[in-house]
Amino acid sequence: MLPNGFIEQYLAIGLTHYLVVAAVLFCCGIFTMMTKRNAIGILIGVELVLNAASVNLIAFDRYLVSHEVDGQITALFVIVLAAAEAALAVGICINLYKNLATVDVDTATKLQG
Amino acid sequence: MASNTRTVTPVLTAAVVLLGMASSAALAASGPGAAAPSSVTGAVPPGGILEPILFYIVAAVTVISSLGVCIARNIVRMAVWLFIALSWIAFLYFLLAATFLGAIQLIVYVGGTLILLIFGVMLTSRSPWVRFDPPKIEIAAAAVVCGALLVTLCIVLCRAVWPATEGAAPGVSVADLGRGLLTTYLVPFEVAGVLLMIVMVGAAHLARQEKK
Fold this sequence. Notes:
- The complex is a heterodimer.
- Chain A is about 75% helix and about 0% strand.
- By secondary structure, chain A is an all-alpha fold.
- Chain B has 3 domains: about 130 residues, Four Helix Bundle (Hemerythrin (Met), subunit A) (Up-down Bundle); about 30 residues; about 40 residues.
- In chain B, about 75% of the residues lie in helices and about 0% in strands.
- Chain B has 8 helices and no strands.
- At the A-B interface, helix 1, helix 2, helix 3 and helix 4 of A face helix 3, helix 4, helix 5, helix 6 and helix 7 of B.
């Protein structure tokens, strides 16, 4: 078996571990938003970024502010807003497709009523 | 290619469900009952060796699937990778002892938002294999920018000194969350409800059939 104290010295999971995972998620989301031309692809990138923010909030809630619910409630609001944003964005994408017959964001260059 | 995705998805779903059961069992084992003997020896943290193992598995799958989202060039594959990433982020929440948030993530995100996105994909593409590829130079520039951002973030995070102790707090119960929502956060809670109603009306208006 492992020597005494090995786990908390080398393997203990702390705040930084979760923050690094969230940073990877954030950068993947940014990359997706930058490189995709499909409007729904960009939306998927936004979802990844929002999830990175939620992971950060919950990790801080667990490791920094003990016995408080602030971080978790803020993460709950993030999920609510993400759902609302996705519903509106999909509606806009469908309108874009109706008008231009594509969801390539580079073709949507005109603003007219 | 389509049949490949079709066979892979149920297998992945089963794996996700199995791991969810395993992690919740592990968390139950590392709860108050199991914490008592470890506080006597004082050597083993509450999760024991199980917590690092579960964390590294969950973190690895989350990172791989989010990389899959940004590497996949096909919108359907991106949606499948996002499905895997969101499900495993829910297990990350379970590991952080935010069980209610993990359940909400699975129900609202995986069950609602993602299905909405997939409906969007279905309604807006003539063929699921249509691609709009940006120029190679743009992909390279974006990769450089995001890589630099990631490296900087990791360096900063690893050097940061956090004020509180690293010891994890016991998880917040659903009752605490509900009490917080109906006392301190009552106004944002109500505003979120009104916002959801406005968004529902707005989305229905945006997606309605135009009358000639």
